[in-house]
Amino acid sequence: MEDQHFLESDWDYCLVLDACRYDVFSEVYDDYLDGTLEKRWSTGSSTPEWAYRTFTDNHDLAYFSGNPFINDLGIPLNELKWGASCDYEWSASEHISNVFDVWKTGWDDDLGTVPPESLGEAFHEHRDAVEKAERTVIHYMQPHAPYLSRGKGQKLKQIQKSIRKQEEAEKETDGGGGALSSLGDTIRPKVENTLEGSELAQKAGLWLELDPADLVKNGTRETAMALYEENLRIALESVADLISELDGTVIVTADHGEAFGEEGVWEHHIETHIPALMEVPWLEVE
Q1: Using an 8 Å Cβ cutoff, are 105 and 66 in contact?
Q2: What are the boundaries of each domain within the chain?
Q3: Does residue 24 contact residue 228 with C-beta atoms inside 8 Å?
Q4: Going by DSSP bridges, is the β-strand pair 59-65/96-101 parallel, antiparallel, or unpaired?
Q5: Are 254 and 20 in contact (CB under 8 A)?
Q6: Are 42 and 166 in contact (CB under 8 A)?
């Protein structure tokens, strides 16, 4: 299997589907898109790792980001007070010429996420930046949870609240988080290490996004995968609409996959290099 070679490959527009498994994508994509599909091996099993290992130089890109880890805040990943703890001294604004924070401007409070149409709207609003940039990336949040048909996303809402708090703290302290932030830096990795090592804890995180009645009836894996496929189909409808407007070579891929119990792993985590998380689609659209 070929490595992803995200930046080394030839394309004008690359549409990234967050947490998109190759196997599920391969079963449904041709209902929406025509093209040549390959299976490739990502550089990371989560967005922070993928970004850190992919964007290592200075890149002339118009990057429309539905994912808050790739942002224009200028805060390194290892200093973020929300999301997964990591040691990556990386921020998108230091490596990508133009990042549009669609995770902020296109946020939907009712859904608890950034719906696909918000990415299309941001793209249309900044066509001048697209024309000036060498290449363009459009990073959708789906099929990543929360699941749009439920309209009750919880986990990303917590991240969104934490982002606002950190932005306020950064403004007040000029980058220093004070005693409270220091305490958070000390405790959070220990908590997350505990969660990472517990299959039950990982499943509990996913349960926040699922309907209890469906869980009892169908089980965690079946319930989650059905909603996951639905999320992917919703995203692909939007992707297909946008691609019809694009002139140039278009690729549809993912930053990483999503686990549903494979090798005891649920969802996706940093440096967890199992096939469910590392195998991603690489579709050159016709």
Answers
A1: no
A2: 2-285
A3: yes
A4: parallel
A5: yes
A6: no
Tokens 């965690």 correspond to 220
* Beta strand residue intervals within 2-129, DSSP E: 2-3, 13-18, 35-41, 59-65, 96-101
Token pair 């990073």 in the structure block, residue: 139
At residue 80, the pLDDT reads 85
Whether the bond into 48 is cis, omega within 30 of 0: no
Beta strands 259-260; 59-65: pairing state: unpaired
Count of helices and strands (H, E) across the chain: 11, 10
- Per-residue pLDDT, 201: 63
Strand, helix or coil at 43?
coil
Measured between alpha carbons, how far is 250 from 196 in angstroms, rounded to an integer? 36
User: What is residue 183's predicted lDDT score, i.e. its pLDDT?
Assistant: 31
Residue 85 confidence (pLDDT)? 75
pLDDT the model gives residue 203: 66
**Span 2-285 CATH architecture:** 3-Layer(aba) Sandwich (3.40)
Provide the residue type at 121 as one letter.
E
Distance CA 93, CA 104 (A): 16
Parallel, antiparallel or unpaired: strands 259-260 and 266-267: antiparallel
This prediction's pTM: 0.82
Contact between residue 78 and residue 87 where contact means Cβ atoms under 8 Å apart = yes
List the chain residues with pLDDT less than 70.
83-84, 150-198, 200-201, 203-218
Residue 180 pLDDT: 29
Structure tokens given for 132: 């000036």
Q: What is the pLDDT of residue 47?
A: 96
